[in-house]
Design brief:
2 domains; about 300 residues; Rossmann fold; 7-stranded mixed beta sheet; single chain; alpha/beta; Alpha-Beta Plaits; about 30% helix; 4-stranded antiparallel beta sheet
Length: about 300
Amino acid sequence: MTDVPVHTTVPAWYVVSLVMPADIDEEFIDQIRDEFSVEPVQLERPAAVHGWLELYFETEAHAQSVAQRCEQWGAPILAVAVRRCDSRDWHSFWKTHFHARPIGDRLYLKPVWHTETTPESDRLVLQYVPGLSFGTGEHFTTQFCLEMIDQLAVPVGSCASVWDVGCGSGMLGIAAALLGMTQVVGTDNDPICQVQSIENAELNGVGSVCAWQIHDVITDPPPGQFDLVCANLFAPLLIQAAPVLWAATQTYLVLSGIRESEGDAVANTFMDLGARERIRDGDGDWVGLLFEKKGLTEPCSLPGVS
């Protein structure tokens, strides 16, 4: 596969750099994510007293607006700067941060610039071009969702349709299509995510299987009912959207993007709606949950779960 530029229609990105103490905690980074709906890039240097967060935007006006809001934020932000980053520089930067890797039993994630042969030839290769939206397989939250999709998708599991809520780069929906699901709907309230998902789906040859829609999970009705609903969102949004997510679920619901301390609150919300918790997994900071509809006559067999 030849090298594919990141968003060739956009000549440059505009970067908001935030200087802060090196020991900044993850809770503040989550606040930045929530406030500006972007995925911050955290930069550190050994023994440095300061750390940096970088936020990437497609227009200078957007970057300048965010920079002004960050300047008003105050502590722990110590300084704010805006710079232009050519798309060629952006692509070279990300090449050093994303790596090919196996996920679950059947998938192999590979950034598009990796040309080496997949170590296990029987794995399905999912190629992707990192962009600004969530979902590259590098984080526990995405990995958990991918592993659940791997176990639940036909023919290993029973799920043939999926709703990827907050699709970001489209990785979860694309994985589902590669694994055999025949109805894949991905939604996000950010038009950039729709563009990136379409590009990544075409890259993987599943563009005809996947439908990408702009959708607000709080205000819009669900786009149908699905064997599997997968939502990699933050806990407050999952709780708020619980009735919509559960109404769209025919069989299984996968939730992630949940901090360890928020796991019980999210789980209880969905169990109050009638969900049965089947799996809870975490890495010490983040939690992923798998629920099923009660009363299933043929529940999927999941490793380590009775």
